[in-house]
Predict the structure.
Amino acid sequence: MSSEDDSDSFPTDYEIAQDAELQPIEEVTEPFGLDADDLEFYGDDKAKVSFDSVQEIVEEEEADSELILVTGMTPTPQGEGKTVTTVGLGQAFNQIGEDALICVREPSLGPVFGVKGGAAGGGYSQVLPMEDINLHFTGDLHALTAAHNLISAMLDNHIRQNEEPRIDTNDIEWKRAIDQNDRALRDTVVGMGETGGTIREDGFILTAASELMAVLCLADGLENLKERVGRIILAYDEAGDPVTVDDIEATGAATMLLKDALKPNVVQTIEGTPAFVHGGPFANIAHGTNSLIADKVAERKSDYLITEAGFGSDLGAEKFMNVVCRFGDMEPSAITLVASVRALKYHGYDMWPADFDKLDEPNPEAVEKGLENLDKHVENLQKFGVPVVVAINRFPGDTDEEVETIIDHCEDDLGIEAGVSDVFSNGGEGGVDLAEKLQSSIENNDDDFEFLYDAEESVKEKIETVATEIYGADGVNYVGSAEDDIARIEEQGYDDMPVIMSKTFHSFSDDPSKKGAPSDWELDVRELYVSAGAGFIVVLTGDVLTLPGLPSRPAASDMDIDGDGNISGLF
C-alpha cells in the first residue's frame, strides 16, 4: 500500500474476496494445459490434479519454466508479506504476457485460529476461495492427522501386545498430532487405566510439524510416498536399533489415508491466475515449502513458476536450496527477497520484545541501521549463484524517504535491483515493475546454481557450513545429547543426508533478542534426530515448539458466522 492510501477506507480482505467473480476452475487451468479431464473437482472453484495426469505431465513434458523463489529478510513476528508478494508476482507476470503459475503452502488450522488468522495472501493479491482454503479445504490436513494418529495407535498396540521388535518405551520419537494450537497437549501421559495399555510419557505436535507432512511434500508419487512412510523412525528397540512404520506394519493403512492428499490442489487468485495450494511443512524442523509434486506439474505448465519458502531466507531459502532443490532436481532462476520498512526498523531499533507502535513512526535512521540485516540475507543468497531482487512490501505509514533509502542502498551499494511491491493495493499491476526486474536479472545472470555443501560431507561439516556461512557464527558448540546423537546417526548410516537446521526465526543467531547481523557468537547445537522418511537430519539449536499455544486473545475470538453463512474475522 502506498503512503497516500487511506487505510480506513481500503476494503477488507473479506470484502475484496466477496466482490471477486470466481471462474469455474477448469476455465482457469485450461489455458495452461490442464482441462476438465485432468481434474478431480471439489465444487466449482477448487480441484485436485489426478494421479494419471500428474504422471503423464511429469513423464512426458519438459520442465523449462523459470523458477522464482520468494523469501524474506528476518521478519517481525507479524510477517512481512511473502505470500502476498508470491501471489502478486504470479498475477504480474501474467499481466505482462507470460504464463505464470503460483505454488504456496496450505494453511494449518492452528495458526489460523491462533495468531495469524487467514494465510492465503491479502488485499488484491489473495488466493480464493479464502474461507475454504483456510478451513477444511480439500481435507488434506485432516487426512494427515488421521494417518499420523493411526500410526500412533498401532505403535502403542505394538507395545501392549509385546510384539517384536520390543520397543524401549523410554526411547520413543513419535508423538500424536492435532491441527490446533493446544499447548495443554504438548506433554501427556498415555496408557492409564486398567485397559489403557502401557503407561508412558507422550504428547502432541501440530499436524504441520508431523514428518508425514514433510514426506507428503517430498514424495514424487504414490509408490514413493509409501516407501517414505515405511521408513519413518518411530522409536528404538531394546538393542538401540530403529523401529520404523514398516516394522509395526502400519505403512499400507497410513498411505491409504494419504492417497487423495498427495494429489495437488489447484485454485485461483483474485485475477484468475492458477495457484497450487498444497502441503504445509514447518520451516524449522522440516523444509518449509509446498509439495514437490505441485512444483513438478507447475514447472511444466508455465513460463514462470513463483513459489515461497517459510520464515526468513536463513531458514526457508537455505532449506529450499540445499534440500528441496537437491531432492527435486530443480534450480531457481532468481530470488525475490521481501523486505519492509517495518522490518528494517525492527532491526534498527534493536528491540526485544518489540514495541510495534514504534514501527509505524517515520524513522529513516532506524531504517538505515537495519539495512545490515538485509545485506546479510543478500550476501547469503548470492552464494548459491542465483540473482537477487529486493521487493519492498510497502505499508501505509512508510514514507517516500524511507523507501528511497532502501532502493538507493540496494542499487548503489549492493549492485542489485530493488522495487516497491504494491500488489496488496493494486494486484498484479502493482508488481509489474518487480516482474520486469526479475526478468532482466534472470537474462543477465551468468552464474551457475550450486549447493552450499555436499550431502556426503560429515554431519558436523554440514552443520558448521550453515552456521558460519549463513548465520554468521564463529563456530558451533555441541551441548546436551548432540555428540551422542551424531555418533548414533553415523553408526546407523544416516549421515549422508542434508541437514535441517531448527533455529529461531527472529534472529540470524540462536538468540531471538539479537537483531541485525550478529557477530562474535557461537551456535549451540543441543540435539539431532533423523527424519528418515523425509530424508534429512534435523538439528535442534534451541527450544522448538512443535505445538504452538494460543495468544492471550486468539484470532478465533474475533471470528464469527451469521445466519446467512457470512464469515467475519478470518482474514
Summary: Residues 563 and 569 are 15 Å apart (CA to CA). The chain has a mean pLDDT of 94. The longest strand covers residues 66-72. The chain has 19 helices and 26 strands.
